[in-house]
Specification:
heterodimer; A: two-stranded antiparallel ribbon; B: 158 residues; mainly alpha; 5 helices; 0% strand; elongated
Amino acid sequence: MNIARLFPVFSVVFAVFYVLEVKVMEYGINLAAITYQPRFVVWQFGAQSPLNGGPAMYWWGWIITAAVVAIIATVIAGFVPETVRAKFWPGLTWAIPLACMATVAFVIRGFFI
Amino acid sequence: MGNFGWSVVLIIHGLIAVFLVGALLHQAASVCWPNTSKSQNFVAAFRGVNSMRYTNTIIILFITVFIFGSFIYPFYRVNVRIPLERIHFQRVVGTFELKEHFLAIAFGMLPAYWYFWRQPLSDAMRRARTGVTAVIAFAVLYAFIAGHILNNARGFGS
């Protein structure tokens, strides 16, 4: 099987899981795979609290977590029969990430109101 | 690295972003609004490019800008965002927050983008190809404008 045919699955799952990670931060759940402490130039595994009151950066950690989940989902999708996969509308590849962008804008609306 | 060094990196980041925005807007315009006329005015020429040739360049430019942006990001987080928060420039901070999230999602769309644009182009995937290109173009254009706004708020020389 041509693995490139599964790339749209990766993109959709990545977008959904990334937005999920941003959303669950509201509930104190941080799924970042790594944390960067810019004031101390320190990388840490997992989601860590800011060191000595300095900011902690989770963005790369969220991207890595979303990528890992998307890779796992893509591998699983590889076992789904082609006839089943073909039933999904290819437009989901742009519609879902676009919806995710709108969702993330809603999630962080507090900055603008 | 001193402030001068960071300014140089920021300018390089911005210049590569200009190329990326230009390439993506050309490609997005050519697939969303194809040039079917023989007209050779500026707008028609802008839409009338051979969009297939842009794909790999756009992916390379996107990743390059992304790497430069990631390199600058910690400097922004400590030296720009915190002062902006102190003077209650929440909307500017939010504009950048949205930029980072849009770009992360667009980054994840690159594999699908590459797949839909690979040769030979599939007619069945034309709408998906158009949609993916348009969404990435939107994200990159937003990011470009947001970066510009942020630089105006607290950029070079501040």
